[in-house]
Amino acid sequence: MSADIGSVLKEVEARVTPSEELVARVMRVRDEVFRRLQPLAVDFRPELEGSVAKGTWLATDPELDVFMIFPTSASEDSMVNRVMEVGKAVFDKWEVSYAEHPYVRGWIDDVPIDLVPCYGVNSPSEMRSAVDRTPFHTRFVNQSLSQEQKRDVRILKAFFKGIGVYGAEIRVRGFSGYASEVLIYRFGSFLNLLKNAQKWKGKVNLGWNCEPDALGIPDPVDPSRNVTASVSIRSLSTFVAASGFFLRRPSLRFFWPSGEKANVRLDQVLVLRTGRPSSIDDILWGEIWKAADSMRKQLAKEGFTVFDVGAHAGPDYVCFAFYLSSKMRATAYLMEGPPVNLIEDSIKFVDKWSSHEQTLRGPWVGDGRWLVVRALGGDAKDVLEAMLKKELKQLALGDFERQIKRGFQVGWATDAIESCDEECVRMLRSFAGLKEPWVRP
Amino acid sequence: MSADIGSVLKEVEARVTPSEELVARVMRVRDEVFRRLQPLAVDFRPELEGSVAKGTWLATDPELDVFMIFPTSASEDSMVNRVMEVGKAVFDKWEVSYAEHPYVRGWIDDVPIDLVPCYGVNSPSEMRSAVDRTPFHTRFVNQSLSQEQKRDVRILKAFFKGIGVYGAEIRVRGFSGYASEVLIYRFGSFLNLLKNAQKWKGKVNLGWNCEPDALGIPDPVDPSRNVTASVSIRSLSTFVAASGFFLRRPSLRFFWPSGEKANVRLDQVLVLRTGRPSSIDDILWGEIWKAADSMRKQLAKEGFTVFDVGAHAGPDYVCFAFYLSSKMRATAYLMEGPPVNLIEDSIKFVDKWSSHEQTLRGPWVGDGRWLVVRALGGDAKDVLEAMLKKELKQLALGDFERQIKRGFQVGWATDAIESCDEECVRMLRSFAGLKEPWVRP
């Protein structure tokens, strides 16, 4: 039973557009920040950027980006010092965050405000750090998008969020807020974008001058940059798939997925828990995906099939999750030896396996190679544990190597949920029972 | 502990060279056949061909090939009639065999004699049936090979036999007797051939004018023909591997493999037994490999990994053997759905699996495709049985389709050896414990 596409979009609009009261509150906070900044703004110029400045913010995410624009003559050290001083003076409640450079996050009336230092440059080609481009984005969106298009940006952001591909962070590998704006600018409207996405197949390049990882779209203010460089093939595929389903079966489900599945089988999911090596999210998630991939490959070499890899980062720990085809390894495992024309390697292989206690069959000659069927068997939990103890060096786990040396636990998700905190349990349950929430009947 | 290569070859020569008594007996039989044929040879000319005529026969295989050479004006029907009449008149004990055409096999003094009709042509280019080429082969070998080389042909044939690649039949897919002679002619000696084979990598073409399946060597009497067309990649690889091992560790083991392994695990081998559809070996084995390959593919689709396929043909039954990685199917199985840009297929897939009782995880979007983890499990025996009952038509089993409809048994080799005859049990044991016999320490 599908709803009418127009009424779904009307409802989404109503939910994502900030109310008059919320707008008034956010504007009051903005005025208050600028009032407090004014006496301090002797070596920089404060300017509002981001989705509030562009009028594309979601009612659920009021957040102010206040940039402190310095002359290009300022030194990087002095800028970092100044943003700390200013933040301390302006906010009662604040903390230091890190992107390419440190910045200050503070709160007024529960509205979060990022205080970000940047250089004032005349064009993006002169920029000295990534954030120097932001003021050009703000101007571009305000000059190029109509009110209807800004409404469609809000709808698109909510769509991306609902299907799980919103955010350029390494954790998500999805679409940034600015990417949403450029997509609406390029395709005119939300529905037109979705219709066009139906023609996308594999990697898609919409005029960027290089080969993209998944999707290439030049930044209108800096065409050599790919606006969607962060998007993975999986995120792009998810968007294409969801677009097709939404056009045929429009529903609020795409924007606000319903809760968890009641029955989830956790016993195919192998969990590794260890310490958290980095406090900066993007660095951490880069390491997480690298380490997960390395462990998946090693598990495959050991005879296990891993269907999917997931992870959860807590404040001081990280949980890896591996979805396995089987808890127990197959009893027999085909091991490929060297090609028959490499005689020295062949002799070494044959001598080793010819009377090895694990040899079930062989060595024999298959199509061009020596082969042996090896008796393996064993529990994936034990194999991963042994890998992390005996083969840690070869695993190339980056920053996780030190954490794992300090300590780790390996177990099945069934047991893990008893000892993990709520957030981690939620991740494990949704990983084990993963299903695109918008396909639910 | 390796023996000296020269003394090994001396011992092989002593064993494969027919004794004076045996030669005298075979020659007496030859004279007797020709004596009996003479009064009948009014429309054909009898001529001795094959390994006895060429002096390359093994002491273990005394066998005479007597060709009845007809003028090209003779009709095929009349030739077939004549060989039957002549065979009946000449032999006390005889039977009809079939190659491209029927021929008669008879025995005198326990020496088998093949009576084969062919056309007498002036050159292989004029030949009308495959056997018309044989007299040219006999002449070529006798004109081109020295006595030492004929000795090396015997050694090479014994080597091919020992490592299991002797014979051009579809069952073996190995080297024919004539291929052995051409190889010695090409490389001068047995040891020089083995040394040269060390340089062979992947497919090997030694001057044939087309791309060979595995090995291409032009027939000296008919260069457009590949002398080793029957050789599979596996047989070629086995020869290359065994050559390298023999040169480094010469031993009689390569020529006369020792007996069975004591301990063989039979429980990874799934056995199917059904009727034998054809009486002609080459046709039967073509069907066997085709059917085995088809069943292997279907088992893979069902989530089973088949490491190797074997078969045994009894007088009225055929046994297929599948070496499996696991008797039980993995509990979870990753099923690939359609690419996300095919929206109609995607909707069909998602609707089917979204609330299917076997769905463990998904449907979700992976890299470009819909995915579902399906609960499978189950015993390979039951799955193969169900396949043969419910999906017989799709399996494309050729002549075996009718046999299987009539009846079949599926079971593990452990049970099968209790109900099979000795020859079949020997095949199952050697299939289950397969190991190149010449690598034994």
Concise overview:
Chain A has helices spanning 5-16, 20-37, 50-54, 76-90, 134-144, 147-163, 177-187, 190-197, 233-248, 281-301, 343-353, 380-390, 400-406, 413-419, 422-432; strands at 45-49, 64-70, 93-98, 102-108, 111-119, 204-205, 215-216, 218-219, 222-226, 269-275, 306-313, 317-324, 332-339, 359-365, 369-375, 408-412. The first copy, chain A, is α+β, with helices and mostly antiparallel strands.
- Measured by DSSP, the beta-strand proportion of chain A falls in 15-25%
Any idea what the radius of gyration of chain A is? 26 Å
How many structural domains does the protein architecture of chain A include? 4
In CATH, what is the homologous superfamily of the largest domain in chain A?
Beta Polymerase, domain 2
Largest sheet of chain A: 5 strands, mixed
Principal-axis shape of chain A equals globular
> Which architecture of the largest domain in chain A does the CATH hierarchy give at level 2?
2-Layer Sandwich
> What is the CATH T-level topology of the largest domain in chain A?
Beta Polymerase, domain 2
User: What average pLDDT do the residues of chain A reach?
Assistant: 91
Quaternary state of this entry equals: homodimer
- CATH classification, class level of the largest domain in chain A: Alpha Beta
Q: Output the structural class of chain A.
A: alpha+beta
Show the largest interface: A-B, 60 and 60 residues
Low-confidence runs of at least 5 consecutive residues of chain A: none
Number of strands of chain A: 16
Biggest sheet: strand arrangement of chain A: 1-2-5-4-3
Please give the count of helices of chain A.
Answer: 15
